[in-house]
Amino acid sequence: MRAASEINQSARDATPEVIVADRQLIVCQGIGSLVAQIPEVRLGQYATNKASLKKLLSQARGRTILILGVRLADGDLTQILDQVRKDHPDVMVVVVAEDTEFAFIRTAIKAGANSVCMMSQILTSLPRILGKLIEGHSIVPTEILRRLTSENADSLSRREHEILALLGDGLTNFQISARLGLSENTVKYYLKAIYQKLDVNSRGAAIAKYVAGHY
After folding, report:
1. 10 Å Cβ neighbour count for 56?
2. Interatomic CA distance for residues 156 and 41, integer angstroms
3. Which DSSP category does 169 fall into?
4. How far apart (Å, rounded) are the C-alpha atoms in residues 69 and 48?
5. I want to staple 108 with a disulfide (CB 3.0 to 4.6 A). Which of 10, 14, 95, 128 is the partner?
6. How far is 71 from 84, CA to CA, in rounded Å?
């Protein structure tokens, strides 16, 4: 007969492990506390940078689900998803974003994330999403699909239009943040999303495209 320790280890390996990665440890811990309450999965460790995430994924045994914020301390969503897909194609990825980071949800879906979840809806959405992933199904929540569809007519959000208009007026990131009541970092995140949508890599190119109506 197999030893009890071997049986326990086999059962443990059969239960999907969830790794949580975000640049802020407190965010990882908050998501982790929710994951720990879901009996169908077991909570793994947290990663805040690319090196720690790479180590955790390389050590993972059995089925693995990665809950990923839109950035780590030393890398953003696109870089990290590309690397995970290349090195660990069997890992299922759920991207979690704040409402102000919705543009990254679109990026995540295009980059091959298995699911996406808004932080404001995480208490109700994440358990359902993990359940579907355990069954082997990718899922995009209905509320997110609805929002993506409603934005298709104009790829830029209202806030992104406001920021581009202020860019065109020559305002700096700091001045834009003060005008709109946002943090300067949030303005930078919006600009990154705008550059991705407009397929440009500079303020000047973004302004030129916006003024010409090419968006």
Report:
1. 19
2. 37
3. T
4. 10
5. 95
6. 14
Residues 6 or more apart whose Cβ sits within 8 Å of residue 27: 69
Strand residues in 84-214 grouped as ranges (E): 92-97, 115-118
Tokens of 115: 């699911």
Q: pLDDT tens across 22-53, in order?
A: 999 999 999 999 999 999 999 999 999 999 99
Q: pLDDT of 7-19, one tens digit each?
A: 455 545 579 999 9
Classify strands 115-118 and 71-72 as parallel, antiparallel or unpaired: unpaired
CB atoms within 10 A of CB 198: 20
Question: From CA 110, how far away is CA 35, in angstroms rounded?
Answer: 25
**Cβ distance 106 to 148 under 8 Å?**
yes
3-state secondary structure of 75: strand
Q: Quick one: how far is CA 136 from the chain centroid? A: 20
